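Researcher: We are triaging several targets before committing to wet-lab work. For this one, the compound of interest is NAP. I'm pasting the protein sequence and the ligand SMILES. What I need is the predicted three-dimensional arrangement of the protein with the ligand bound, expressed as structure tokens, so it can go straight into our comparison scripts without reformatting.
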Amino acid sequence: MEDQVNGKPLYDVVIFGASGFTGKYVVREALKFLHTPSSPLKSLALAGRNPSKVAQSLEWAAHPNPPPDIPILTADTSDPASLRRLAAQTKIILDCVGPFRLYGEPVVAACVESGCDYLDICGEPEFMERMEAGYHEKAVDKGSLVVSACGFDSVPAELGLMFNSRQWDPPAVPNSVEAYLSLESDKNVVGNIGTYESAVLGVANMSQLQELRRSRPRRPRPVIPGPPPPKGSLIEHQKKLNLWAVKLPSADSIVVRRTLASLTENPRGLPGVNESAEQVEKRENFWSTVKPAHFGVKMGSKSLLSIFRIIAVGMFIGLLGNFSFGRKLLLKFPSFFSLGWFKKEGPTEEEVASATFKMWFVGRGFSDSRLAADGNNKPDMEVVTRVMGPEIGYLTTPIILVQCALILLNQRESLPIGGVLTPAMVFGATDLQDRLQNNGISFSVISKNSLQA
Ligand SMILES: NC(=O)c1ccc[n+]([C@@H]2O[C@H](COP(=O)([O-])OP(=O)(O)OC[C@H]3O[C@@H](n4cnc5c(N)ncnc54)[C@H](OP(=O)(O)O)[C@@H]3O)[C@@H](O)[C@H]2O)c1
């Protein structure tokens, strides 16, 4: 079969890893937009290493309707030629094949080589930074956008921070924004093994990330008004939100830090391939309202016991993940070592449907930026915002990934020509937030208060 029709790729989107636990939910989300009026998604193909498993995913995703007639392509990350074929046939690959540290690079390489765009749902900082170091320049040359973390990792954090920072009307400025993630369900919702495995491998390769960072030039840091916030204790009681909280070592704050570095280098955002004057103005206006802040993420819970559970799981993965026998144990007994949070068979559909998340962004800063200039002044203003939505891994993640793809399909001309970039740098100034809002992920301002001295 020809890869192109009239010089254009055969497909708008290929979902790679469509047979995976998350992949099948991504297929279900994408089908909602295939051939629907005003949707730019006109042609979709699914890909995986096992076509009959991919066909089963399609059947599951289309249920109760019969599976639509969608091409199923075979590709394996250990077969670069199969990936090149995939990349030559499509405008965008949505990569759901993880852990990305094991399987992601050949897919990025094929997309960059062919100039197609690549989005994934990775939450692994080392992979993202390695791809940036190795492929950014070539991706710019080839006109390929490579954007990792287009899922729950890390779009709610990226857009949520920007949303909070935009509520600070001059002369007010934020100094820090702490995000508190709270997962809610009346059922005991578990995560699938794929995410757990990625986290275990992430710990194992922490030293490689440090090494990679040391080998690269330091990127500029944003100028944030006022002193950095105090470190605080291991466990925090957030009285206002009525939550106990502990630091969450997720990818979010690392992705946000990369965005803030890019923004420091490009304060007006990144120019689009072929922007109209109006689009330039819109982009520049948008970025002029985004203010940098120190950012961190904590996992919150109403129960102190759950916080101790999180710490215990973190300790198991942190200690055992560092050596090979420990990793084997962690991966052999996921349910035991995650204290029931992850299972090999993943959550049931009912469990997924029952779950929701709330991510609160507590911004602290100054009612007047001049106050920040005096290093002794403490923040005197607080802005609390919230992002909330359905279950994080298998509902929110597919919604975000598919909306990012739809934006690429119909707004490509106003987006950067290419490069390995963060979601916020590519989609921040687009209508992504409105789209998420229309698809069940909401952004709200909760309160704006002065703080007592
Ligand atoms: N950003 C987020 O918030 C978020 C949310 C959910 C998941 N994730 C990430 O998504 C990734 C997948 O998670 P999951 O739970 O869906 O895992 P999974 O169920 O194990 O799915 C993995 C997929 O990769 C495919 N695969 C594995 N090796 C391959 C190879 N060599 N060539 C081609 N395909 C290959 C598998 O194909 P077979 O079916 O043939 O085995 C399957 O389709 C993980 O890295 C996870 O961390 C991120």
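Researcher: Any quick observations?
Model: The longest strand covers residues 173-184.
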